[in-house]
Amino acid sequence: MNGMGMKVFLPCRKGSERVPRKNIKPFAGYPHGLLELKLRQLIQAERIDEVILSTNDEDILEYARTLGSEKLTIHHRADSLCTSATSTDELMAHVVDLIPEGHILWTHVTSPFVNATCYDQMIKCYFEQLDHGYDSLMSSTLIRSFLWNDGGPINYDRAVEKWPRTQTLPAVHEVNSAAFINSAENYRRYADRIGQKPFLFSLESIVAHDIDWEPDFVLAESIAQTGLVEL
After folding, report:
1. Is the pTM of this model over 0.85?
2. What is the 3-state secondary structure (H, E, C) of the chain?
3. Which domains are assigned to the chain?
């Protein structure tokens, strides 16, 4: 297996509240939308052995069955694990039931600009970093900005310099949820989709763009149609 046992967990529950039919409504020339694009990206990735699509959406199930890819496994998830109240912790227990051994890449259709090449790069990095003391990988977006809370700045000291150059500010990693890579063993050991020492794999902000609200969808579609980012 090219992926050394790398399997993908791709959750797609029915009933998006913020963007109706977000996973499967037409997107940038793809009739079956973000799902169609993401499955194409994952199936094309050379370091991925199997893609497990977990959904309770009959439209998604019907479309996925037409693909006929040997890499794709379709799992009809119970409705009880597909409500807006379903916690990530509950899903993590579900994942390890589906993928009891090997390595797991958890990703979402809402990251349309994370393409096959990017997935291959992250998987390659994950296995390399296992030899350097890391036990998992999590994608992030680097932020070099003036970050404050109600108590003042949190990433610089105004007593030293009131407005330092942004280039000199310490970078902060924002978890963008594009990818979490971990072993099934660690899922069981820590009940988590990351281990105790995840490697932070930084993505460019445009690549890391996540679709959560309707304006995010509109912006992503506009970016995709310009051809600025390879899908």
Report:
1. yes
2. CCCCCEEEEEEECCCCCCCCCCCCCCECCECCHHHHHHHHHHHHCCCCCEEEEEECCHHHHHHHHCCCCCCEEEEECCHHHCCCCCCHHHHHHHHHHHCCCCEEEECCCCCCCCCHHHHHHHHHHHHHHHCCCCCEEEEEEEECCCCEECCEECCCCCCCCCCCCHHHCCCEEEEEEEEEEEEHHHHHHHCCCCCCCEEEEECCCCCCCCCCCHHHHHHHHHHHHHCCCCC
3. 6-226 (3.90.550.10)
